[in-house]
Amino acid sequence: MALKNAIELGATSVGACVKVDDAAPGIEEGHNAGMWTVGLLLSGNEAGLTFDEYQAADEATLSAARERARVKLGTASPHYLVDTIADLPGVIADIEKRILAGERP
């Protein structure tokens, strides 16, 4: 689906696309499509927290949820792991630098 979406959006270089997902199969899909991949640690299913639980969680709870997600997402080897989509601007900036330096996903 990620590759199909990139084609339908008219992306001229899949290697400049970023697949953000909260589960290992989605990260694998991004790799298979030739995209950069970002795994979501706390704002996704692998953390096992509802939004309300996330909002109310103390640091120990967040750390445990983060580690659970890191283990599950790590099996797919995402290029980046971030807590939430709020962390994406920094990741996108880093990916842009890497692309300019000639790196590929």
Automatic annotation (TrEMBL):
InterPro entries: HAD-like_sf, HAD-SF_hydro_IA, HAD_sf. GO terms for molecular function: phosphonoacetaldehyde hydrolase activity. It comes from the Bacteria. Its EC number is 3.11.1.1. It is an enzyme of class 3 (hydrolase). The keyword Hydrolase applies. The keyword Hydrolase applies. SUPFAM superfamilies: HAD-like. Keywords: Hydrolase. NCBIfam families: HAD-SF-IA-v3. This is Phosphonoacetaldehyde hydrolase. It comes from Vibrio maritimus.
